[in-house]
Amino acid sequence: MFAARSAVLVSAVAILAVFPGESVASDRLFAYTYQTSVLGKGDVEIEPWFTYATGRDTTYSRLDHRLEFELGLGGHLQTSFYFNYKTEAFEDPAGGLALDSKFDGFSNEWKLQLSDPTAHAVGFALYGEATAGADETELEGKLLLDKTLGSVLVALNGVYEAGWEQTGDGAEMEQTVAALVAATVEVKPTFHVGLEAREENVLEEGEVEHAILAAGPSLSFRPDAAWIALTVLPQITDLASGERNLDFGTKFEARLVFGVHL
């Protein structure tokens, strides 16, 4: 698994080196929390994503890969297409180590910016995403808010997700409601430092089953050729139980996202 992770990271760096470009207003400053900005009409961007999670009551680690192609449609609207891939290493019932790698389906995203964080009192955008996999279907909606205050940008996302997983008894539904908040400060035009926090609630039969809070530092680099966002999100606690949840959640999660303007 570690060899695979090294290979995809090297591939992503190679992509950055090959494609020249310029930083634009749609560059992301956070790896998890979305901003309201969108690509201009006809602009195209490619974004490789890498999310790594580890640390449970038993041996466990996971690496999620997403390759996103993003297109500006004009009228403050953009769409994206994703290819998703997942690799998990975990302890099997016999006590050994099992490795499961699979293609995790396609996703399609739409994002509409209704106001700008610099020109208006607050930036506001609507976000929708649909994912179709071999054994699971997901629909996700987000309300995106952000505001620029001098060298500081603050962002807030409200998220609702419904997923249907195929089991032997039919489709089983799971609902998630989450809030993400982030703030970053410009150290210099090509470098930002900030914090991100995520509180994720998993609902079962209308009741909160898990309410996992995670928070950590974020970094954003914007060289001439692209942008890079990195956030580390260690789990703080499960608000539903008052202690860390290492059955459903993990001790540590981090995400690295690259963006290349084509």
What amount of the residues lies in strands? over 45%
Output mean pLDDT: 89
Structural class: mainly beta
Shape: globular
Q: Mind telling me the C-alpha Rg?
A: 19 Å
Helix content: under 10%
Number of domains: 1
Which consecutive residue ranges, at least 5 long each, have pLDDT under 50?
A: 1-24
Q: Care to describe what's here?
A:
With 262 residues, this protein is mostly beta strands. Helix content is 6%, strand content 65%. The chain has one domain (2-261): monomeric porin ompg (Porin). The protein contains one helix and 13 strands; from the N terminus they run αβββββββββββββ. Strands 1-2-3-4-5-6-7-8-9-10-11-13 form a twelve-stranded antiparallel barrel. The model is unreliable at 1-24 (pLDDT under 50).
Sequence-ordered SSE layout with sheet pairings:
Blueprint: H1 2-18, E1 44-54, E2 60-74, E3 77-91, E4 97-115, E5 123-132, E6 136-149, E7 152-167, E8 170-188, E9 191-204, E10 207-221, E11 226-232, E12 235-238, E13 252-261
Features:
disordered N terminus; 65% strand; 262 residues; mainly beta; twelve-stranded antiparallel β-barrel; 13 strands
